[in-house]
Specification:
13-stranded parallel beta sheet, 9-stranded parallel beta sheet
Amino acid sequence: CNSGNINSTDLWMAGGILNNYGIINTNRVLVSAGGVYNNYVSGIANLDSILITELNSKLNNYGSITTIRLGNTDNAAVLNASSAFINADYIGDSLAQFNNNLNGTITINFDFYNAYSSNFINAGVMDIARDFLNSTSATFETYCMMGVGRDWYNTATVLGPILASGCGGFAVAGGTYNTGNLGNSTTRIDICD
């Protein structure tokens, strides 16, 4: 449990639990082997990179995380809770689960990648300054409109809210390229480019 300051080059949760109520300044964070990193409401994390990997490993963010790279792989999970903030240059999701809950905020300063059978659910605010890529059997669901500052690519599945509810989709400044599946018989997806 951290209620103070952690200043370290590396931080590794290998099967353990870190509850952060304070400030963490570090270069690299690794959560593996079923480890759990809980960043609570008062928690502030300033990181170069964070990787959540392996079965049952989790990042639960209720506070604020600023990082250059956030990776989520190999059956791990990330939760960005209501009123929580993630600001990252790059986010990559591969064979994992990522939830941005209602009123959670994710700002991506460069590119977003969702691939290899990952499932990403966006019910909050999400803005991508450059490229969006959803590929290789991944599913991306959004229940809110998202901004994409450059190009949007999909070779997998993108879903929106159910037909009777509000809009969800993308406002794309650049090109939109799709060879995958958009929506299904019970959902809708709006793409404005």
